[in-house]
Each structure stands twice: as structure tokens, then as C-alpha cells.
Amino acid sequence: MSFRATVLTLFPEMFPGPLGHSLAGRALESGIWTLDCVNIRNFGLGRHRAVDDTPFGGGAGMVMRPDVIDAAIASVRDERQLIALTPRGAPLTQARVRDLAAGGGAILLCGRYEGFDQRVLDANGAEEISVGDYVLSGGEIAALALLDAAIRLLPGVMGAADSAAEESFAEPLLEYPHFTRPAEWRGRAVPETLLSGHHQAVADWRRAEAETITRARRPDLWARYIASQPARP
Ligand code: ADE
Question: Which InterPro entries does this one have (predicted)?
Fold first, then answer.
């Protein structure tokens, strides 16, 4: 059974976009996942097919109408999770991506303007997800990011070596730095340990590097990592 992605958007021409290339593109061609886009405009109201209106209570921007969005959702709704991409959603994590990839697919709702009338998200039990603490001009690029992260985990998309590597990122550390040939480049040498052929030394070096970089860049991950380590006597 394929992973089925359905995207509700005002800009269906943005899909598959980058997901039509490389790993995801090949997987799409081979039927590992499928993509359907629905233009929310098709459910717009009146001669201008309006999808939004001014916010009650005042303020800048426009809000996507609940009746319009609900009709778009109803046209595709099935047992799959409904996900609204919004900057006020819960941050996307690798754990959530893994769960999504293990399921049958998702219906992704992409907003523009100031967002959705909250009632249509509540009435449809939508899960709100954010791809980071910054504001995109719409949910489309967030949906592409979420789909990319899920698709690479589908069986048959990556080689066996890569999927094994994926498991190691279950570990809450940032990755150690990578090096390839040439062994010296612009006066910069590859760390000697990596040339030693000593597997345990390489593993120890990588672990130390991963810890150093995580501690420096991501105090949040570092704190969780430290808390998860068995206490040493
Ligand atoms: N739409 C606008 N910004 C977003 C973000 N950071 N994550 C998800 N959807 C968004």
C-alpha cells in the first residue's frame, strides 16, 4: 500500500515541486507514495470564488473562511490524519515524522494570509504542525518539508545503509562532521583518527565531536541527552 498525500492549497502548481526530483521523485514515479492536490479556490464563494474574509475583532490580514475550508476538507476526508501547517502548530519532530511515515498517509492543509478560522480546525480534529520558529508566507513549503521528511523513511526509498544510519539519529545528538578525499585540502587536513582504520577510535572520536557540537549549538538537546545518560558511579 502506498503512502497517500493529499494537499489542500491555493497553489497546487507548487506541488510536487522539489518532491518530483531525486529520492522522492523516483519514489513517486514508482508508486511508493501518491500525491493529490486540491485547489481550495474550487470551493470559494461567489463570482470571485472568495476563500477569506476580514478578522472579527479587527486587525491586519485576512482569515480563511471555515465554510470554504470545510468543503475542501470534506471533498477528500477519509481515515487519514488531517494536518494543518501553521506557525502556531506543535513543532515537527523526527518522532512524529516516523509515525506519519508508518501510517497510510496524510491530508495536508496549507494556509495563506493570517491563517484559518479556528473553528474549522477544531471541528475537523486537525493537528496543527509547525516546521520551525519562523513565519513562511504559506503552509506549502512547510508541507513540502514534512512530506520530504516522511517519504525518505518509506520502505524502498533509501538504501539499507541509509536506513541504518537513520536509526542512529534516534540518538538525541547532532551529527559528527564528515570528511572525504582529498585527505588534505587548502592546507586543511582530515582529522588523523579518521585515517587510522581503528574502528573504536573512530567511533569514540565521532561521539566526542557529536557531544561537543550538540552542547555548543543545542543546549535543549544537550540537556535531554545528559538526563538520558545512565548515572556514572
Ligand atoms: N506557515 C507559515 N509558517 C509556517 C511554519 N513555520 N510552519 C508551518 N506552517 C507555516
Answer: Alpha/beta_knot_MTases, tRNA_m1G_MeTrfase_C_sf, tRNA_m1G_MeTrfase_TrmD, tRNA_m1G_MTases_N, tRNA_MeTrfase_TRMD/TRM10
**ipTM for the predicted complex:** 0.98
Whether residue 142 has its Cβ less than 6 Å from ligand 1? yes
CA dihedral 13, 15, 17, 19 (to 10 degrees): -170
| Cα 152 to averaged position of ligand 1 atoms, centre (Å) | 21
Ligand 1 pocket test target in 11, 85, 96 with most atoms within 8 Å of CB: 85
CB 41 within 8 A of CB 173: no
Query: Tell me, what CATH number does 224's domain have?
Result: 1.10.1270.20
143: its cell numbers: 508541507
Residues 206 and 132 in one domain: no
Domain contains 76: yes
The whole domain housing 100 covers 3-151
The per-residue pLDDT for range 185-226, each reduced to its tens digit, is: 999 999 999 999 999 999 999 999 999 999 999 999 999 999
- How does pLDDT run across 66-96, given as a tens digit for each residue? 999 999 999 999 999 999 999 999 999 999 9
- Count up the domains in the chain and report the number: 2
- To which residue does cell 504542525 refer? 129
